[in-house]
Design a protein that fits this description.
Elements lengths: L2 E4 L2 E4 L15 H7 E2 L2 E2 L3 H4 L4 H11 E4 L4 E4 L6 H15 L4 E4 L6 E5 L1 H15 L2
Antiparallel strand pairs: 1-2, 3-4, 5-6, 6-8, 7-8
Helix pairs in contact: 3-5
Length: about 130
């Protein structure tokens, strides 16, 4: 009903569109890679499976580019500090990209923050996947 009356006033409702997608069991294998006992975990075995496309998707989903400082952040606050150290080491060993751990605003977790030169390296690594 586009028109409703409440508290003695007449309101016109705006048209809205809602979309829903179906859940596919085809995605269960990916879920199982990331979740152990209903908690998302990062493991060396999982990281061994990530390629430039996976990093590109990750950046597009959880990344942020700070135009003023020319630095990238990956929001990894949902992972433990130990897992963030694992990610830091993986970026260095696998891609020769340095990354710092930055305390989040809550100070209870950290996120990945790439220095300027390494932000540029990361962008060069993933740009073919993003700007095909």
């Amino acid at each position: 009903n586009p028109i409703c009356e409440a508290k003695g006033k007449i309101y016109t409702r705006k048209t809205e569109v809602r979309m829903r997608s179906k859940v596919s069991t085809k995605l269960n294998s990916y879920h199982d890679l990331f979740y152990k006992n209903k908690i998302k975990k990062i493991t060396p075995q999982l990281l061994d499976q990530l390629d430039t496309l996976a990093i590109s998707v990750w950046y597009c989903d959880d990344g942020h580019y700070d135009f003023e400082n020319k630095m990238i952040s990956l929001h990894t606050e949902g992972f433990s500090i130990k897992e963030n150290h694992l990610l830091q080491k993986w970026f260095k060993d696998m891609w020769n990209i340095n990354v710092n751990l930055k305390k989040s605003h809550s100070k209870k977790s950290v996120l990945l923050r790439f220095p300027v030169q390494d932000s540029e390296k990361l962008l060069n690594l993933i740009k073919k996947e993003i700007f095909f």
